Amino acid sequence: MSLLRTFIAVEIPSQVQKKIQEAVEPLHKELGSSLIRWVPTQNIHITLKFLGDVSPASVDHLTQILRTEADACPTFDIHIGGLGSFPSLKRPRVLFIGIQAPAELEALYRGIESACARLGYEKRDFSPHLTIGRVKQDASVTDQQKIRHALEGTTIDSLGTARVNSVHLYKSELKPSGSVYTQIYSAPLTK
Which of 6, 81, 82, 102 is least surrounded by CB atoms within 10 angstroms? Predict the structure, then answer.
């Protein structure tokens, strides 16, 4: 029985993904692909819980969790905009677009996190964001400064609003060309 690398996430509509792609294009041009592993536009999402490797038998438990938590959560809107980096601007490792998340997203996360903890998954803090790129491991101090300078010189204002009406369980396959995400299960939120 092979394990599935999985995560729970909220999708971003393709029209918003396209706006994100257009907004980050100047950074792509300035920094290129030698310093940053850019996330393909169609893979941009809000991760609620990274689960790692799970057995196919665990998928049933996870889909039940999603069903239960989605039934308890109404649909809601998120506002997307702003540019940032983790862990800090001085030491960027992950580049992201910001999210103004309403209480409903936090409640959905807390419910999923709590249910997953009961199954033995490690608890993690939640900082809602949309990852757009990861700084390559071998980036030098000079590379880090170049990235920081590019981030400081780039302003990304509001990119719009996205309606969240479902939550999804994905499997992630690591390929030489990058990660391939496949939706395993989708649970609609209440209307």
Answer: 102
